[in-house]
């Protein structure tokens, strides 16, 4: 076994031990296919008020500009599919926000993986990324064979569905590289047909500025009145295009206690949400990504749903 193959096997075994669903590796190089897509997305203002998407164009497409001397992108998936979901007749939050903010949970695991590499392999320079830096996570995961980009632009896996987080380690180490898998969306249009705001403007193209997640999380202004009645009771994020995806019938509950929801969360009714106090908000979402929208943002969204 050559050195690259040996290191690759060690890294993948440790990733599995740390609880990652899967690990794929690709060569750190310019993402040629993604450049025109990203340019087009920005040119057509599909990022809405997410102005940060316009920054670091080169770095988004070339990992060697992010991590000097980088040779490999290690992509990792972490399951967040919950065993139990919210009650039916209530205002909804995306499943990824049920428990502790994933940034902290994944960053911790990535640090452990990098530390393991340094202990087992030697001097390895690299950085961990969890969607908070200019890295095209899904493109790298697809390039390294962890799934394909579906018609809803989520990463899909035949074995796992799509309820998982994507993260990377970009390192200055030569490894063995995986190959992309084929697309298995076929003629299915379930996600396109089900999107409440018609944000999937055509297969494989989402207008981010029309997405319920964008409105309920990213948009800081008043919610547009023309969207009243279209949010399908989502008050933070939206899972519709994932819930209807046939591949998600293969989703299995995660085994990460930190992703378990606060007990009160699952039983709250619409009335409970409409009467939520800042104290209850802080208690239920103490470590959750929902804190991003703050109490004022969540109550704005709830009021909008109530008035719809």
Automatic annotation (TrEMBL):
Query: Does tRNA processing appear among the keywords?
Result: yes
Chain positions recorded as [4Fe-4S] cluster 1 binding sites: 185, 188, 191, 245
What cofactors are annotated for this protein?
Answer: cob(II)alamin; [4Fe-4S] cluster
Q: Which InterPro entries does this UniProt record tie to the protein?
A: 4Fe4S_Fe-S-bd, 4Fe4S_Fe_S_CS, QueG, QueG_DUF1730
Say yes or no: keyword Chloroplast present: no
Report the superkingdom from the record.
Answer: Bacteria
**Location relative to the cell:** Cytoplasm
Which Pfam families does the record associate with it?
Fer4_16, QueG_DUF1730
Q: Which UniProt keywords apply?
A: 4Fe-4S, Cobalamin, Cobalt, Cytoplasm, Iron, Iron-sulfur, Metal-binding, Oxidoreductase, Queuosine biosynthesis, tRNA processing
What is the uppermost EC class here? oxidoreductase
Q: What is its main location?
A: cytoplasm
Q: Name one GO molecular function term.
A: epoxyqueuosine reductase activity
Q: How is the cofactor bound?
A: Binds 2 [4Fe-4S] clusters per monomer.
Q: Which residues form the 4Fe-4S ferredoxin-type domain?
A: 173-205
Q: Which residues form the active site?
A: 131 (proton donor)
* Annotated catalysed reactions: epoxyqueuosine(34) in tRNA + AH2 = queuosine(34) in tRNA + A + H2O
For tRNA, which residues are the binding ones?
Answer: 220
> What are the EC numbers?
1.17.99.6
- Which residues are involved in binding cob(II)alamin? 60, 131, 152, 155, 213, 238-239
- Assembly and binders: Monomer.
Job of this protein:
Catalyzes the conversion of epoxyqueuosine (oQ) to queuosine (Q), which is a hypermodified base found in the wobble positions of tRNA(Asp), tRNA(Asn), tRNA(His) and tRNA(Tyr).
The Swiss-Prot or TrEMBL record describes its family as follows: Belongs to the QueG family.
Q: What is this protein called?
A: Epoxyqueuosine reductase
Q: From which source organism is this entry?
A: Salinimicrobium gaetbulicola
């Amino acid at each position: 076994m050559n050195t690259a193959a040996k290191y690759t096997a060690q890294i993948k075994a440790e990733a599995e031990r740390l609880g990652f669903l899967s690990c794929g590796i690709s060569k750190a190089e310019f993402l040629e296919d993604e450049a025109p897509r990203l340019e087009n997305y920005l040119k057509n203002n599909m990022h809405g008020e997410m102005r940060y998407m316009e920054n670091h164009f080169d770095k988004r497409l070339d990992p060697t500009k992010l991590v000097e001397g980088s040779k490999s992108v290690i992509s990792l998936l972490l399951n967040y599919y919950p065993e139990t979901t919210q009650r039916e007749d209530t205002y909804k939050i995306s499943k990824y926000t049920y428990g502790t903010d994933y940034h902290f949970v994944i960053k911790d695991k990535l640090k452990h993986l990098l530390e393991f590499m340094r202990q087992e392999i030697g001097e390895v320079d690299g950085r961990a990324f969890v969607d908070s830096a200019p890295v095209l996570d899904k493109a790298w995961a697809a390039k390294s064979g962890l799934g394909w980009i579906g018609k809803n632009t989520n990463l899909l896996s035949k074995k796992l569905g799509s309820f998982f987080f994507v993260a990377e380690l970009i390192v200055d180490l030569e490894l063995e590289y995986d190959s992309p898998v084929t697309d298995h969306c076929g003629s299915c249009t379930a996600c396109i047909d089900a999107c409440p705001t018609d944000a999937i403007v055509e297969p494989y193209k989402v207008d981010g500025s029309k997405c319920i997640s964008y409105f309920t999380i990213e948009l800081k202004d008043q919610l547009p009145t023309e969207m009243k009645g279209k949010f399908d009771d989502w008050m933070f994020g939206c899972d519709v295009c994932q819930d209807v995806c046939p591949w998600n019938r293969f989703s299995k509950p995660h085994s990460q206690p930190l992703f378990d929801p606060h007990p009160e969360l699952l039983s709250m009714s619409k009335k409970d949400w409409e009467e939520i106090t800042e104290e209850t908000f802080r208690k239920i979402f103490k470590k959750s990504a929902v804190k991003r929208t703050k109490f004022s943002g969540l109550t704005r969204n709830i009021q909008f749903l109530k008035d719809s």
